Q: What sequence folds into this?
RNA sequence: AGGACCGUAGCUCAGUUGGUUAGAGCGCUACCUUGACAUGGUAGAGGUCGGCGGUUCAAAUCCGCCCGGUCCUACCA
């Protein structure tokens, strides 16, 4: 084996081997276990959040596969309507053309071309993470088969009266020229103004003052509203306003929505350009005057002077014009939230358009019941509240998008504007007896991408066709996802799946946190704090990292800042840590749904952990290869105390890791495994094997027992660790398996370890704990007295029990080797010891003679420290026991424990004080 | 405004149904190249568990209030 662990050298080979051999496919046997990947955006590349999510899924999948489940991990990507269309439009732009010049058909061809070239990027990266999905079943939301499912769902929902078309106010993106959902609108806090305008009353009796943050919309005002109980304005209700500039007469109405205490208490109402005003407009039957075109430029419903103006230019002009008329009362600074398009970054307009909607209430009712009734469980549980609160206040879902890339809506219109929904034009004609003389035109719009991803769990399995895969793997077992798409996706999957499949899409939703940088900042390109998981795996030099982080940066100032920050944080660039270390870091931080702050210091620690495992395995192989390890099943071996102990500890480690998997606490699983490998197996057990293997007098049976245990515990540990660190465990396991008497082509398909109660040996555990305490006690004296580890010491044991004596006799060789002892002498009660430095293991005194080794003052200082500590302990416990209430009310065993403790502390204190007296008298 | 989550060592994080001396990794200090590993070993320093109250024999843990942070939802035009 290589002297140090070299991840790059093994990962690629093993991955190709696994994939080529088809190990990722379901076995066809055992209990079904299925995860559907949340389809990453096809335009995307793998970021830290994906890395985290995929690593979690892969661990769960590998764990269940090894447990013998019929395991399917279905992978795929999402066509991402807006994002993909934007990417390709940018390419066209660079070529000096655009989609309109190309035409719809050619444009879509171009998108497909692009998808073929670039769409594999993210799946290639997924492979680098060691992900083990069934690649043969990879799906894309625009696949033919999937399209059938999407179409079917649309048609059935339409037939069932759950899809309708309507003219409503939507979130309009004036740059992308499409409706977008509420969830794609980000409300940003902005500093703005509140303009106060005087609106003259028609009867000439004066004016009232309205306040607005959006002056340009006044051109579309169709009322002014006041609160019905507002005495200041009661006399105005029913009168009318002469709307300036637009020169229209509009009513003054009363509505409880108005807040008397805000601004002047008078609100201008623009039903076509504000969601609240829209509702008020409906309540009062107000006309809706749309003042914008698709670009949010002013249209012909506005006075000629404004027509064609861009919305913000129009704002300035409205303000100036009103000011010129003496109608601008004042302008005050005002903080407000501005709706911004998530993708386009421009201000979103509430805009009246014809759109398709899903009537969500009936679907939501069922979806709520599924979670309330426990058919679906969220982990952690608190996310259920988030889900409920959204579901209970759900709005109808606008599913049409004015894009070209996506699932085109299967609806046709005749010249009269009648709409016909069906699979294709022929079907529509046949069904509605429309002759060839009637021209039909398909709806230009496509469906919201989330409409198709809502069918992901069953659509990917071949629905509407009813096949074996669908029967076996649906509902899926668990959905692993971030909380940020619970509304976008999780909720919609639950609604649509319940409606069409009459069953839930998944039983458990495991919600993980967001990956942030080590400071808790969100990773973003503009902050320049993005880490690429692949760079953590392969490493990257500083210059490449800097140019990567600043690529495409337009602002020189920002670019310089990011460069500086990057050079400071990674002066040496990023080292190559390997996939397993990256994955382990994710797991160690994957506690209950909270965000994780990714600190490069952690990954370095886990790279070291991989190296530790590598080198420990090297030691094991060196000592077992070409020897008899009992691989043939022979039983002529004998287990040492250390062997029994490590086997026992292995059972407990297995329990803890399995517990971590079943409760989705991969941080606890990884911690338990880490501690077992490093602290139990490497720090103690490997050291404890040396006195046996290197002892010429040890029996063959005992040596064989030790070698057998070394290799078998390692073999089981590798299987235990495999779901978390697939590559290194496979590499080592291949060498270990013949020596452990294990068959199998790959660790991936080897059985997962099962703890056996019978192998838990508390006697061995207690004995080894004693051995460890003795060794640590001696080392502590050595460490504090600056005695070299190389110096062999004589030690004396005094005041020990018969149990101590037995343990000493049985473990002399362990103690001598691990504490570097010259000899151990047991002193009977009546024997006087040499003047010594002392440590206690229970009542047993461990004595290291001072002669020539230990300075009197140093030992006195050490004793003082120890005595001080014990005095505090005694004081604390005495205080507790002196409290009558504690003694009366606390449970018996707790009180007894305190009493035992006190006795122990007092005994230790006495012994230490005696020592001090003796040494001080010197 | 409402809600959720978080605040534990210099940093990143664990801490189960309240009950040993509150733990880990990184970093730090001292010593050590000993025959798996310096990506290592041994020993050690470092915490009034955000603050104040309360419940309890006993609170990092349960309850209330406050402070600080993150996020979500809804927003007053």
A:
């Amino acid at each position: 084996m290589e002297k140090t662990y070299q991840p790059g050298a093994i990962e690629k080979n093993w991955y190709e081997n696994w994939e080529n051999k088809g190990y990722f496919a379901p076995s066809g046997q055992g209990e079904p276990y299925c995860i559907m990947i949340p389809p990453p955006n096809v335009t995307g590349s793998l970021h830290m959040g994906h890395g985290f999510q995929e690593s979690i899924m892969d661990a769960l999948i590998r764990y269940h596969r090894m447990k013998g489940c019929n395991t399917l991990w279905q992978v795929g990507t999402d066509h991402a309507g807006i994002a993909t269309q934007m990417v390709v439009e940018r390419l066209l732009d660079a070529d000096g053309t655009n989609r309109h010049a190309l035409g719809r058909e050619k444009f879509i061809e171009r998108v497909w071309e692009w998808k073929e070239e670039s769409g594999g990027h993210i799946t290639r990266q997924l492979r680098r993470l060691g992900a083990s999905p069934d690649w043969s079943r990879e799906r894309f939301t625009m696949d033919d088969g999937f399209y059938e499912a999407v179409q079917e769902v649309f048609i059935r929902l339409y037939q069932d009266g759950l899809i309708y078309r309507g003219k409503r106010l939507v979130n309009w993106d004036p740059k992308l020229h499409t409706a977008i959902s509420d969830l794609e609108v980000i409300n940003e806090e902005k500093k703005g103004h509140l303009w106060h305008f005087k609106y003259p009353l028609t009867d000439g009796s004066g004016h009232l003052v309205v306040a607005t943050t959006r002056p340009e919309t006044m051109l579309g005002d169709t009322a002014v509203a006041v609160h019905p109980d507002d005495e200041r304005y009661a006399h105005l209700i029913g009168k009318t306003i002469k709307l300036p500039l637009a020169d229209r007469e509009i009513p003054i109405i009363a509505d409880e929505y108005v807040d008397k205490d805000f601004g002047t208490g008078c609100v201008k109402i623009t039903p076509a350009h504000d969601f609240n005003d829209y509702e008020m407009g409906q309540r009062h039957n107000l006309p809706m005057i749309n003042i914008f075109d698709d670009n949010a430029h002013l249209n012909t419903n506005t006075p000629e002077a404004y027509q064609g103006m861009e919305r913000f230019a129009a704002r300035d002009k409205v303000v100036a014009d009103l000011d010129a008329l003496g109608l601008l009362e004042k302008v005050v600074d005002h903080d407000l939230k501005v709706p911004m398009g998530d993708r386009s970054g421009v201000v979103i307009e509430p805009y009246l358009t014809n759109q398709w909607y899903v009537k969500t209430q009936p679907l939501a009712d069922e979806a709520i019941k599924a979670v309330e009734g426990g058919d679906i469980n969220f982990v952690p549980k608190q996310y259920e509240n988030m889900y409920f609160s959204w579901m209970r206040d759900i709005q109808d879902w606008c599913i049409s998008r004015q894009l070209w890339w996506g699932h085109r809506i299967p609806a046709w219109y005749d010249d009269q504007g009648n709409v016909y929904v069906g699979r294709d034009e022929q079907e529509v004609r046949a069904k509605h007896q429309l002759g060839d003389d009637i021209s039909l035109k398909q709806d230009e719009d496509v469906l919201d991408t989330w409409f198709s991803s809502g069918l992901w769990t069953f659509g990917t399995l071949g629905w509407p066709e009813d096949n074996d895969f669908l029967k076996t793997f649906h509902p899926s077992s668990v959905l692993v996802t971030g909380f940020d798409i619970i509304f976008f996706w999780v909720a919609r999957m639950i609604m649509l799946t319940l409606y069409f499949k009459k069953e839930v899409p998944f039983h458990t939703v495991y919600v993980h946190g967001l990956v942030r940088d080590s400071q808790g900042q969100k990773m973003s390109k503009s902050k320049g704090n993005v880490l690429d998981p692949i760079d953590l795996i392969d490493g990257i030099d500083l210059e490449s990292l800097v140019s990567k982080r600043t690529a495409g940066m337009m602002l020189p100032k920002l670019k310089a800042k990011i460069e500086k920050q990057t050079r400071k944080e990674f002066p040496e660039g990023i080292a190559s840590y390997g996939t397993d270390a990256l994955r382990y870091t994710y797991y160690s931080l994957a506690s209950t749904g909270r965000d994780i702050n990714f600190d490069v210091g952690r990954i370095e620690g886990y790279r070291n952990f991989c190296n530790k495992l590598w080198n420990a395995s090297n030691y094991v192989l060196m000592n077992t290869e070409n020897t008899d390890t009992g691989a043939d099943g022979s039983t002529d071996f004998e287990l040492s105390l250390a062997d029994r102990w490590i086997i026992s500890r292995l059972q407990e480690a297995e329990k803890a890791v399995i517990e971590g998997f079943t409760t989705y606490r991969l941080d606890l699983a990884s911690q338990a495994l880490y501690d077992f490998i490093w602290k139990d197996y490497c720090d103690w057990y490997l050291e404890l094997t040396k006195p046996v293997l290197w002892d010429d007098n040890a029996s063959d049976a005992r040596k064989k027992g030790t070698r057998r245990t070394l290799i078998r515990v390692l073999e089981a540990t590798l299987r235990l660790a495999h779901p978390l660190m697939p590559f290194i465990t496979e590499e080592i396991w291949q060498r270990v398996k013949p020596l452990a008497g294990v068959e199998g082509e790959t660790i991936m398909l080897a059985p997962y370890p099962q703890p056996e109660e019978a192998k838990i040996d508390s006697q061995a555990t207690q004995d080894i704990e004693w051995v460890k305490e003795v060794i640590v006690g001696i080392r502590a004296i050595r460490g504090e007295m600056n005695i070299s580890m190389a110096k062999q010491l004589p030690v004396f044991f005094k005041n020990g029990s018969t149990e101590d004596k037995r343990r000493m006799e049985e473990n002399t060789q362990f103690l001598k080797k691990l504490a570097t002892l010259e000899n151990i002498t047991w002193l009977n009660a009546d024997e006087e010891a040499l003047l010594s430095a002392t440590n206690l293991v229970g009542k047993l005194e461990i004595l290291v003679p001072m002669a020539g080794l230990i300075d009197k003052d140093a030992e006195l200082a050490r004793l003082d420290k120890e005595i001080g500590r014990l005095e505090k302990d005694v004081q604390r416990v005495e205080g507790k026991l002196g409290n009558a209430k504690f003694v009366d009310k606390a449970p018996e065993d707790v009180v007894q424990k305190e009493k035992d403790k006190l006795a122990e502390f007092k005994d230790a204190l006495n012994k230490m004080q005696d020592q001090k007296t003796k040494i001080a008298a010197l």
Observations:
- Chain A has a mean pLDDT of 90.
- The radius of gyration of chain A is 37 Å.
